[in-house]
Amino acid sequence: MITNGTLSRAAAPVPAPEDIRDLKPPLDIPNGWAPLWWTLGVLALLVVLFCVWRWWRARRLLVPVVPPVPAHVRARQKLAAALALLAQPKPFCIAVSDVTRVYLEERFTFHAPERTTEEFLRELAGTDRLTPDQKESLSRFLESCDLVKFARYEPGEPELRALHESAGRLIDETEPRPATAATATVPAPPVLKPH
Description:
Blueprint: E1 2-3, E2 6-7, H1 34-62, H2 71-82, H3 89-108, H4 117-125, H5 132-150, H6 157-174
Antiparallel strand pairs: 1-2
Helix pairs in contact: 2-3, 2-6, 3-5, 3-6, 4-5, 5-6
């Protein structure tokens, strides 16, 4: 357009404020070292985990293993504790009978605690792990305990002590004996006969 002899250009329209765009955020330029740092970080973590595992394993191996208490030792301890119930015949007989039954189960794998006396004595008759005298003594012991437990028999202290001694004697007779080394027969020195 020409006005007053000058050429004027058509004015460019002024953009509205909505048309102004904000600056773009900076672009993340990938670093060539990032995979190396991630790999080193994972390796460092694996080394730390390996060291912790080795320390835990070594510590676990240093913990002393406590050997189990043998059945006859536990039975004797429980029999000694049962003496505190001597003034109460029924609890005393229950305790002494249970100690004996549990001992026989642990020592000979009899199923004594889960069975009645009759069932247990039938099982006992078919085994050779106890001598006939021990079987007879055990039978009398269990029947005496059953009289107190189920028939309301009230024995005196001497009878209760006899039951206690019977249980202790059975444990003494049946406890495992340490294996003795084969005794080497030492030849007797030669006898020299005078000429």
